[in-house]
Amino acid sequence: MSASTIGSINLLPEHEKREIYRRVIPHELLEHFKLNPYLSDKDGNSLISLKCNPGSTSVELSLFHEYGFRDPILYGHLTDTMNGQIHILLYILNNPASPRFDVDVMPDGTPTKFGTFRRNIEAERNALAFGLAPGQIRGGLGLLTAATTAFENFVESLGHEMYFVEPLYYHNAIIFERYGFSYQIGKKRMERIQAEFTGDTATTRLLDSSTPFRDPRAKESIRLRSWAIHDGILGEPFTDVTMYKRIGKNAKINTCVNCVW
Fold first, then answer.
1. Does residue 213 fall inside a structural domain?
2. Residue 100: which domain range?
3. 207: which residues sit within 8 A by CB, 6+ positions away?
4. What are 137-177's pLDDT values in tens digits?
5. pLDDT tens digits for 49-100?
6. Residue 179 Rama label (left phi>0; alpha psi -120 to 50; beta)
7. Nearest Cα to 255, choosing from 216, 226, 217?
8. Integer CA distances (angstroms), 246 to 9, 58, 100, in order
9. Is residue 189 included in any domain, yes or no?
């Protein structure tokens, strides 16, 4: 049976699904953590978790460096678009050696959806001070280039020439630009945001340090802009941005070309 979509992969036997979805995992990640090809530990415990039930058009993949560890080193949530293209809803690489900041849960354990539904302000303040961007619970691994290559190989193996991604935060969109993604929806929104953070505007006047997330340096910093936007400085959440990338395409644009991280 030929599989070209998440939905069709999910109809396959378990061992076949596992073999196909493991293509998403970059070899560099396995080498970094010295994981064996079976993705299990020395006691035989599986280090990979897949949620890909038959009939579903989405998959959630979690890969752990250590059995029982709280956070995966890689988490991916993929789905099919209406016309059968691959759409990344969420893709995270975590450094398990990095301190953890509970931006994803409230003090009572209630999920925050990475701060998009509700916010753990104290955890966010600490993450900001540590140098993280909105939504990050731990530092990254510096393997985004390898991860992008692995994902494109996965998409190409399914017979596709392009795929889609939905950036959860402003800084995600800028990073995706640098990796060659274009805007399906939201380019004008990104250009308006650039204009709002340039010169003397209503937005820059709100960069008054009234909260830790409204740092005046956000005019020239992608990360700090993202925190300010996350803090509501634009009067609305960062939504309605969808991007796509053709396999092998290099970056050509950058909305925040003069900004530092």
1. no
2. 6-198+237-246
3. 214, 215, 216, 218, 219, 228, 233
4. 999 999 999 999 999 999 999 999 999 999 999 999 999 99
5. 999 999 999 999 999 999 999 999 999 999 999 999 999 999 999 999 999 9
6. alpha
7. 226
8. 22, 21, 34
9. yes
β pairing state of 162-165 and 242-246: antiparallel
- Tokens linked to 49: 């978790």
Residue 236's CB: how many other CB atoms inside 10 A?
10
Q: How many domains does the chain have?
A: 1
Using CA atoms, how far apart are residues 67 and 44, in angstroms rounded to an integer?
A: 10
What is residue 42's DSSP assignment?
T
- 207 in a domain, yes or no? no
Q: Could you tell me the two tokens for 127? A: 């993450």
Residue 130 counted as domain residue: yes
Q: Which of 92, 90, 144, 136 is nearest to 114 (CA)?
A: 136
